[in-house]
Write a structure and sequence with these properties.
Helix content is 42%, strand content 14%. The longest helix is centred in the middle third of the chain and has 32 residues. The structure holds nicotinamide-adenine-dinucleotide.
Amino acid sequence: MAASSYTKNILCIGAGYVGGPTMAMIAARCPQYKVTVVDINAERIAAWQSDKLPIFEPGLLNVVKEARGRNLFFTTEMEQNIHDADIIFVSVNTPTKTFGEGAGKTADLQHWEKTARQILKASESDKIIVEKSTLPVKTAQAMERILNSNDKGIVFDVLSNPEFLAEGTAMADLANPDRVLIGSRTNERGIKARQEVVDIYANWIPRERILTSDVWSSELSKLVANAFLAQRISSINAISALCEKTDADVAEVARAVGRDSRIGPKFLNASVGFGGSCFQKDILNLVYICESYGLTEVADYWENVVKINDYQRRRFVGTIRRVLFNTLVGKRIALFGAAFKADTSDTRESPALYVAEQLLEERAAVVLCDPQALANAKHDLARYAERIEFEPDPYRAAQGAHAIALLTEWSQFKVLDYARIFDSMEKPAFVFDGRNILDHQALYEIGFNVYPIGKPKLSHFA
Ligand SMILES: NC(=O)c1ccc[n+]([C@@H]2O[C@H](COP(=O)([O-])OP(=O)(O)OC[C@H]3O[C@@H](n4cnc5c(N)ncnc54)[C@H](O)[C@@H]3O)[C@@H](O)[C@H]2O)c1
């Protein structure tokens, strides 16, 4: 298709975990549009142009390959692409602020504002700007103010279209989402702009799943959705602590509770805790917003979701320390998993890295094993480079280890030959299953002492 025959020119600023997969899906499903993804990180862009993509996501490479070079382009050239675009999605990172007012809670909007100014500088025609990044409520309004302060007579409509994909299942989520949410101003101009974005998604998503709302409700819905999801995890994790004290089994409790159709069975797996770049950041953002409106009780309520998560991770490390006779110095401990969840290479806020760091502080000899996330983990744990081993082969990782701690629910870890692993380990040998995915009885029968989350331990000691 010649460049001029595209019916829409879509640009996405930010080629990360959201921008890359989302735009690949739009390009694959809508060959009539030109979709360009731009990023300041040249290395990332080069990887998007190759078959070794910068992120691991099942099914992503096939979708990229379907559209790349046809109507999907990755580039670092910002100005011309902003100039040519009709619709610009902004999908830059919005991490938690680490300095000044709101440090540790609110979002750091420096990349976001920089992008707004880049758009302003390079634009010569009206454009629709779509917030894909997760942002504090009212950010669209700020963006609109910056953009519409121009003296070129250009009008920008700023919409909110938060992304609900989950890493690890991003392509399935994008192909068949529960819903797409698009918020706009509710005046005639806003509704017209919103319709343009609805039309993009309607190429493959049934209209009844495309929700529209005002901008502020849309921005807030994303924070609240993540807060609710994380709250379920913290709720069941809180109960797992009680189960360990009472010899109840958290999986049995979750099964019984989840059968209530008002509650439902999903997100009720007890674990070492949630991770990822979003849950904690978005809850803290929500907390900050509540505090800034004087809603102290509401802020405290949500902050406890994060506190329970911290508690759960600490508790897990505490169990390892206590069970391994209160000293970890020099003990080889194999950590199965570095990614914050299965089927991703993302290690941001991964409980595995938290556990690794705590064990290193106890002077254990840590070996980290993961099928996809070791490169990111190496980068994250660079300050411990001398003292940590990175080993993709779980059999080698466990050789000579006193314990295995399973931290990411990769399916490969379920089907290992644990009898062979047991034979190669120091005795007594321990397994700490931070995801409750292993066959605990079988491990016990092999000879392991097994410590699941929220279930009675299986120990060979009296
Ligand atoms: N990762 C997820 O699962 C997920 C899900 C839903 C929403 N979100 C939200 O989406 C946003 C992006 O998240 P992500 O995980 O894709 O982040 P990411 O860090 O993987 O990607 C962001 C990209 O933006 C680029 N960037 C930053 N400033 C730029 C600029 N001025 N010009 C061009 N490129 C620039 C960075 O180089 C980076 O490649 C965040 O707000 C996040 O909260 C993430």
